[in-house]
Amino acid sequence: MKNTNRKKASAKQKAVRSPCINICELNEDNVCIGCYRTGQEISRWGKMTPEEQLAVMKKVHQRESESQFIN
Question: Which Pfam families match (predicted)?
């Protein structure tokens, strides 16, 4: 008997881990000062595909590197 669950699991990408660090406050640009996601990105996170989540993570890293709080 073949294990078909393994194929299903490998075919389906896992969700990307949320960058939330429980410092939830949006700045004047509607970007969270804790995770660097916009309000819309935060609210949609659980409904996004892994590809969409990865695209947001690229934006998060860029926003974080441009932040005045990161050296």
Answer: DUF1289
